[in-house]
Amino acid sequence: MQKTIAEINEKIKSGKATVFTAEEIISVVEEKGVKKAFEEVDVVTTGTFGPMCSSGMFINFGHSNPPIRMSKVSLNDVPAYAGIAAVDAYIGATEHSERLGMQYGGAHVIEDFIKGKDIVLSAESYGTDCYPRKDIKTIINKNSVNQAYLFNPRNCYQNYAAATNSTDKIMYTYMGTLLPEFGNVTYSTSGELSPLLNDPEYRTIGIGTRVFIGGTQGYVAWEGTQHDPDQERLENGVPIGGAGTLALIGDAKKMSSRYIKAAIYEKYGVSMFVGVGIPIPILDEDMLMKTAVRNRDIQTVLVDKSGRENLNIKLNYEQLRSGYVEIRGNKVHTAPLSSLRLAREIAHELKKQVQQGEFMLTEPVEKFKTKGHRLNKLEDREV
Amino acid sequence: MKTIKVSLQYSLNSITTPLVSNLIRKFNVEVNILHANISLNKIGTLIADITGNDQDIQDALDYIENQDGIRYKLFNKKLIWQEEDCVHCGACTAVCPSNALTMNKDTWCLEFSKEKCLVCGLCAKACPLNVMSLQA
Ligand code: SF4
Ligand code: SF4
Question: B2-74 with B78-135: one CATH topology?
């Protein structure tokens, strides 16, 4: 038996869809069995809330009088990319303030913008016949600008390597502070609740999929950068480490600072927590089984962030979440970096929206490739 | 009765003094060891809460002061956790040396145990949202 997205949407519209989160569905399937559960369940919701460096915001400031063709732009002293049309710019989440360094960055500008705060815009230009003005310093906020949307080239890593440190020195990384001599292990996914771990072969998530992003509805715009579906997989289709990624887009003016938060990793730099949730239509029993994946069925690799040692250790998320794992016979303390607490909140919020007919599901406009996708490296070549 | 938090630094070869039991016997104070890193022929650290009345605590500190090779430092700061701004990511639990910060395995909320805190400040640096700070 099959269900279509159109049929599921009919149920959502009439407020009759049966929805569970990707954590709840596990016991539903265990109790009712696959057949019965499939008959009853229409949608499973997922969620994640983790630091996602590859994020940023396009913004159109509107034209001043006299007009300026901005060639250099900063927002609260954080440089934004202005090599596009006259009053368009892109502020990247990881850019640092020219004045405060990594104490304040692009992600803080984005969070402040979403909160509705005033932001100082400084722009310079060389002046043209049609855009004579050479500089401007003014105040903008979300009511004053035209479009402002997050366009995040890489969000929602399907899975991610856990990190540790074999050296005798502390390491400050985007995977948090790693203590010397395998002093700790950090990991960053919401495991069985994570969007792409519940649709490991991208059957329902593709280009055009409507998603919950930062508290509003946005879309999958493209495959994310470094999308790498050819990653080694377990029998259940779940990749061991890295793999799929999503490029996401959403209206920053409608987002909430509860689900977008600037982050500073000590001696590393600025990043941004992005909250994402994706509803998965339960089209058939296979899809149901995929969403019933458990932490112990999801593995990742453990990587020495110093690059010194090839540890050859695979861990599942039940082990990682237990608080301790074993490395070469020693008990090592584990710590998460992405918030399961917020990921759950997002999955529940999305569940509520689908139940109340406020969030309709989409058929992907185009599906992602699952094979034949080589991840290139950057070579040092003679110029 | 009050409780103070002290860090004791032992220089080489000073660990032969039965300091903790002397404190308890002579000065009628309670000593709760929070963290100890002491071994023969090495310099060592011991972090403890000392509880007693004002005079006894002062006498105990004076006694420590008079021991060869042992120095004490009072912790007069405390850790402030702005809980309402915490996103419960867990990054701080990666560095906490005393398990004062742990994730609740049901709710996956951060939990902070003031008693176990050594006021080392590592979590304040590791927190990506700056919601942990040391204050006097
Ligand atoms: S690192 Fe900061 S935000 Fe994350 S759990 Fe700890 S205190 Fe909360
Ligand atoms: S200051 Fe922070 S890291 Fe240090 S012991 Fe206290 S809670 Fe743990």
Answer: yes
The CATH number of domain B78-135 is 3.30.70.20: yes
Among candidates A274, A280, A282, A281, which has minimal Cα distance to A248? A274
Say yes or no: ipTM exceeds 0.90: yes
What is the fold of B2-74? Alpha-Beta Plaits (3.30.70)
Distance CA A90, CA A112 (A): 15
Ligand nearest to the CA of B81: 1
| Tens digit of each residue's pLDDT (9 = 90 or more) over A46-104 | 999 999 999 999 999 999 999 999 999 999 999 999 999 999 999 999 999 999 999 99
Provide Rg for chain A, Cα atoms. Answer: 22
B87 vs A342: CB contact, 8 Å cut-off?
yes
Give the gap in angstroms from C-alpha B2 to the nearest C-alpha of chain A: 34
User: Quick check: helix, strand or coil at residue A43?
Assistant: strand
Summarised one tens digit per residue, pLDDT across range A13-57 is 999 999 999 999 999 999 999 999 999 999 999 999 999 999 999
Closest alpha carbon to A278 in A325, A208, A188, A331: A208
Cβ(A174)–Cβ(A54) under 8 Å?
A: no
Q: Which amino acid is at A155?
A: N
pLDDT tens digits for range B78-109: 899 999 999 999 999 999 998 999 999 999 99
Q: What are the two backbone dihedrals, phi and then psi, of residue A327, each rounded to the nearest 5 degrees?
A: -125, 115
Q: Where are the domains of chain B?
A: 2-74, 78-135
pTM of the model: 0.91
Q: Is the CB of B38 under 6 A from ligand 1?
A: no
Report the separation in Å between the CA atom of A187 and the middle of ligand 2, taken as the mean of its atom positions. Answer: 20
Mean pLDDT of A342-351: 98
A338 chain-B contacts, CB cut-off 8 A: 89
Q: Which amino acid residue places its CA nearest to atom 6 of ligand 1? A: B92
Overall size of chain A counted in residues: 383
| Cα–Cα distance measured from residue A131 to residue A39, given in angstroms and rounded to the nearest whole number | 63
